[in-house]
Amino acid sequence: MTEPYHIIEAEGKNVPVLISVPHSGTLFPDNIKDHYNQKLIAAPDDTDWFVHKLYDFAPEMGITMITATYSRWVIDLNRDPESAPLYDDGRIITELCPSASFAGEPIYQDHHMPNRNEIDRRLETYYWPYYNKITELLNGLKEQFGKVLFWDAHSIRQYVPLIRKEIFPDLILGDNNGKTADNELIETALSTLKTKRLKVEHNHPFRGGHLTRYFGKPEQSQHALQLEMTKINYMDNKEVHYDIERAGNMRTLLKKTFENLIKKIDTL
User: Fold this and answer.
1) Do you know which Pfam families this protein is assigned to (predicted)?
2) Which of 19, 44, 52, 238 is most buried (most C-beta within 10 Å)?
3) Strand partners, 93
4) Which helix (H) or strand (E) holds 260?
């Protein structure tokens, strides 16, 4: 079986930062691939397309990356393992093992929805190995530096009417209302990300998914932030193809953000 994650090691001098990209995977395991609508999984639309590419400058900064191998339609690594809702405001939240796309299309063929045993198998095979590897990497960085920042990288279409009636802001920094990271790190990230060109929100409409909430333990010098961005900021107008110019602008901003965060975490 293909490993459920891919590690891109830091180059040169290590820094206490780990970037996770849990929704860029596009593979479907051979043993369940034929359970899905084959047309939809040829290009699973809910994928955070190219986010691993957008952040591929990070290893040169000394940052380790972990990216998911399998599609979020196999199992969503950013949901609660017991399917507890992340929000209580009535919004539609996709399941741990999604049954439909963000556009409302059923993703499984008839009679192939995963039952409880299958969901438990996917947790054991794909979900917990991702979490366990992150734990291992964070512990290693904490042992080396005494503190660590976990950054969960996401993207979303600018307009997803089943989730929100308005278009999304350009960037949304999530820290579960200040619970997952030291306030100085939060303010450093926000002040760097806020530019005249971009609309930046904090904890609204997303305040960080399960990964951020699970690994964010600032009282243990383990901080976590989630950044959601609209795909229009690094893809073309149809949010299909990677746009070199747009991505270049976003990469410059992200690099500056990590430079400032690395300096700030050193002072905590």
Assistant:
1) FGase
2) 19
3) none
4) helix 244-265
Residue 75 CA to residue 122 CA, distance in Å, equals 7
Q: How many CB atoms lie within 10 A of CB 120?
A: 13
> Under 8 Å CB-to-CB from 11, ≥6 apart: which residues?
59, 60, 62
Task: Provide the β-strand partners of residue 190.
Answer: none
Integer Cα distance of 14 and 266 in angstroms: 13
- Quote the CA–CA distance of 17 and 32 in Å, as a whole number: 35
Q: CA 8, 150, 156, 184 torsion: positive or negative?
A: negative
Low-confidence ranges of the chain (pLDDT < 70): 87-93
Of 170, 164, 126, residue with least CA distance to 22: 126
Count of other CB atoms within 10 angstroms of residue 115: 9
* DSSP per position, 11-75: -SS--SEEEEETT---B--TTTGGGB-HHHHTS-TTS-TTHHHHTTTGGGGT-EEEEESB-TTT-
pLDDT value, residue 88: 67
Residues comprising the chain, all counted? 268
The per-residue pLDDT for range 163-202, each reduced to its tens digit, is 888 999 999 999 999 999 999 999 999 999 999 999 999 9
